Structures are given as structure tokens and as C-alpha cells.
Amino acid sequence: MSAPKISLQRLASATTVDQVLGPVKSGGCGSSSCGLSAKPDDIDPAIWEKIRDHPCYSEEAHHYFARMHVAVASACNIQCNYCNRKYDCANESRPGVVSERLTPDQALRKVIAVANEVPQLSVLGIAGPGDACYDWKKTKATFERVVREIPDIKLCISTNGLALPDHVGELADMNVDHVTITINMVDPEVGAKIYPWIFYNHRRCTGIEAAQILHERQMLGLEMLTARGILTKINSVMIPAVNDEHLIKVNRWVKERGAFLHNVMPLISDPAHGTHFGLTGHRGPTAMELETLQDRLEGGAKLMRHCRQCRADAVGLLGEDRGNEFTLDQIPGEVSYDASKREAYRELVARERCDHATAKTEASQMVEATALGKSLLVAVTTKGGGRVNEHFGHSTEFQIYEASPRGIRFIGHRKVEQYCLGGRGADATLESVIAALVGIDIVLCAKIGDCPKDQLAEAGIRATDVYGYDYIETAISGLYSAEFGVEPLATTA
Ligand code: CLF
Ligand code: SF4
């Protein structure tokens, strides 16, 4: 995804989110109560209220809303074999990586600057580059300063869990509704292969003892959060031959202790990053291995499949990073909050959301109702708003959907290099894009030229821009109908 700069004038005159992002086929329903009616039937209203604007906790919300991280929590109390916080690269997207560490006052300036310019902003997260609970004073001071200025921003933290039980009460007092704990094991023998040491109670521990303490603290923290009604998401790094099979047990344990979501992420492993796993040649899982494990976990704790493994200073919609636009040297010394863009954008989203939800349900039901027993794996290019609205050549990732007798399901995303730069495509880049699309039947995009389309066809992947600017699910159901010769539903988008 990539977001354009959005003026207040453009926001005020738009009637759909897509008019803000680019051209559109037709408008939303115009009712301002739609944000509520977009609630899925199986979600409790109180929980929906907490997740409806959170891009990580709601797959649907990630089409509309953005998060930002402020890198205030530098210190960490454990060592993970997949982490090296010394390495930094502006193009690198993985947890623990930042370009600029901030004090709580600097973080406040940055949050205000982003809130004034990025109307999609709904969540402030602290996700490192160390541990948000261990570096607690800075985490707390940042949240306190920000909510004084921007009371409606949601607060979110990510932690390894070791220091979490010490701060659950304060998290609840500050109305932090969303806490992520990274849990990679529930068996200390597995943990000893992931964590060489922890620092706990003024002492450095290693081996099984370290993993046992970490495990107990993680479970205690999770249980305490559940008792307080704070939504928890569990992040697990899938490390082939270390914890891949074991994550099935992790999923069961965290579900039993009230976790709201389980997010299984692939190990990022590269010798250039200087991590233990990178330097010892321990590979990460392939996209197919990850999807297979996620499929095996279906039916357990609810899965998150749209994680983008953000940097600890990420800014923007998931899948884009606008952090470079908001470095401290670009932010004035004095900056005051202007709520106008965020408010205008929220009204727009509220108007459009039920239209999208209705279109999505109808499209999925249509695919289910055909009972053809046939599946299609579809790759979609989008820049937000839940529509097929990105040109093939501008895309830096594809969102993957499956249309099958189970309906239309979001499966995940695949990152690629942007093929078209300055109007010209590069053959080598296209080859890598085609390689990333292995197994895909059809690409849906807003626009595609004959040259890439032909080369995709040679690799057995079709591509079409016929459904450009439709809602994603409406486009997929139209495609499914055309593909298998069934009567399409009238488009609602
Ligand atoms: Fe940030 Fe994490 Fe909060 Fe989201 S990220 S602290 S829950 S606001 Fe989101 Fe990024 Fe994945 Fe994290 S996509 S890495 S799950
Ligand atoms: Fe790195 Fe986070 Fe692990 Fe600490 S807890 S070592 S910051 S990945």
C-alpha cells in the first residue's frame, strides 16, 4: 500500500474513502451510522468498539486505519536469537529496527505532527526497539503526554512479557486496551533454543531456567490482562525445526488463557542482520509453509493473518511506512494538535463502512452458494479503502484471497519490489514479482500494461484490470462467476 498526502479540502469534498485515495466507480451508502452496522454478527459490541478502528486487531479496519510506533523504549531484558537492535536500515521492515530513538517529549511532538497529517491515524503503539514494559518509565510518560493532547487515540503496546505482570494495573489505569505478548514457546526446552539469556530480579539467567521464568511470567501476564478485560494478541515467530510444530500447542495454551488473537509471523533471517539465527544460517519459513501452519491453527485461537512485521518506528497504514516523512528534523519545535483531518476522515469511513460490509457479505455468500467445489487463489493490488485501486506496477505487496466453497477468505500478503519506477518497468524486477506470485491463479489490479500481463501469462498467471476500483470481495465474486460460468450478483460498489 502507499498513501498520498491528503488535504482537508479533498477530505471535505469526498463522499467515499476511495475518492481520497484515487478514482472510484460508485459511492457509499451515505448513512453516518454505518460504522456500527459494519459489526460482524459474531463479535460482542463492547469488543467491536475496541477493535473497530484498530488496524491490527481487525482485518477489516486495516483497510482504513493506520498505526504509528514511537521508538521510546530502548532497553530490553532478554535476548532473542532473531533480534539484533544494532542493525538499522531505512528500508528494513522488521521489529526492533529504528532510525531514531525518542524521548517522551520528542515522541509527543512526532505523534502530533503525524496526527495532523495522516488522517487515518487511530493507534499509537510502543513496540521497542527494546521492551515497552521493561523500559516502563518512558512508555508510561509517553502515553500520559499523548492522551492529554489527543484523548481519542488508542494506546497499544508490545512486550516480551517478562516485566508485564508488574505493570498490568497501570496499563488498565491508563486505558491501554491492547497488549501484544510475544510468546514463542510454552515448553522451556523449546525456549532454551530461542532465548540465550534473560535479565530478571537483578540477575542474568540462561538455558532452561531462563526459558522457564519467561514462560511463567508470560502466562501470568496474559491471565492478568484477561482478568482486567484488556485485549491481548499473541505474536509468535515461526522458526522452522525449532518451534513450528510447537506453535500448535502454544495456540491452544493462549486460547485457554483468554488471548483474543494469535499472530504467527515468519522468522526473518539474514546474515547481514547479525542475528544469531541469521549468522548460523537458520532459515525462515516459506510463504507456503507459513500458510499451511496457519491453516492447521484454524479453529483454535483466532488468527491474525495481515501482520506486516512493522519496524519499531513505523508510521502509516499497515504495508506502508511513512516514517521518513516524520523524522525529528522535519518537525517544528512547537507543534499543536489540529483534529480537523482525522475527524473528517472518520466521518467518511463511518459513511462507507456498512456499504463495504454489505458488499463483502453478499460477495462471499454468492461464492459459497455456487457450491461448485472449486477454488481460486487471487492476488489483489490495493492502496486502502478495501478496493482494487492500485496499479500493478506501483504495488509493493499483493493481498492474497481465496475464493472457495468456504466463501472469500483473506489469506495473507506477499511483499514484492515495485515493478514500475518512473513509468518504466524492469525485467529483473518483474521476474521477482512473478516468483512471489507462485501458486496464484489471477491477479486483480486497477491497471496493468500489456507487457507485464503477457509475461505473467507465460508463467501461468492471469491478470485483469476489469474490476478496477470495485471492492475487493465484489471483484473476486465477479471473477469467480466469470471463471466458472455462474450468474453474477449485481455489484453494490
Ligand atoms: Fe503496533 Fe503491534 Fe499495536 Fe499494531 S503493530 S504495537 S498491535 S499498533 Fe500490527 Fe505491526 Fe504486526 Fe505488530 S502489523 S508487527 S501486529
Ligand atoms: Fe529484541 Fe524484542 Fe527480543 Fe528484546 S524482546 S531481544 S527487543 S525481539
Count of DSSP helices?
16
Number of strands: 18
Helix content: 25-40%
Which structural category fits the helices and strands? Answer: alpha/beta
Low-confidence stretches: 23-36, 88-92
Overall radius of gyration: 22 Å
- Cα distance spanning the termini: 20 Å
Mean pLDDT: 88
Strand percentage lies at: 15-25%
Approximate shape:
globular
The distinct bound ligands, ions and cofactors come out as:
FE(8)-S(7) cluster, iron/sulfur cluster
Note the main sheet: 8 strands, mixed
Order of neighbouring strands in the sheet with most strands = 10-9-8-5-4-3-1-11
Could you write a compact summary of the structure shown?
The chain has 493 residues and is of the alpha/beta class. Helix content is 34%, strand content 17%. The protein binds FE(8)-S(7) cluster and iron/sulfur cluster.
Architecture blueprint of SSEs:
Blueprint: H1 8-13, H2 17-21, H3 34-37, H4 45-51, E1 66-69, E2 78-79, H5 104-117, E3 121-126, H6 136-149, E4 154-159, H7 168-173, E5 178-182, H8 188-191, E6 197-200, E7 203-206, H9 207-228, E8 231-238, H10 247-256, E9 261-266, H11 276-279, H12 287-297, E10 303-304, E11 315-317, H13 340-370, E12 376-380, E13 397-404, E14 407-415, E15 420-421, E16 424-425, H14 427-436, E17 442-444, H15 450-458, E18 462-464, H16 472-484
Parallel strand pairs: 1-3, 3-4, 4-5, 5-8, 8-9, 9-10, 12-17, 17-18
Antiparallel strand pairs: 1-11, 2-6, 6-7, 12-13, 13-14, 15-16
Helix pairs in contact: 5-6, 13-16
This protein binds FE(8)-S(7) cluster (CLF) and iron/sulfur cluster (SF4).
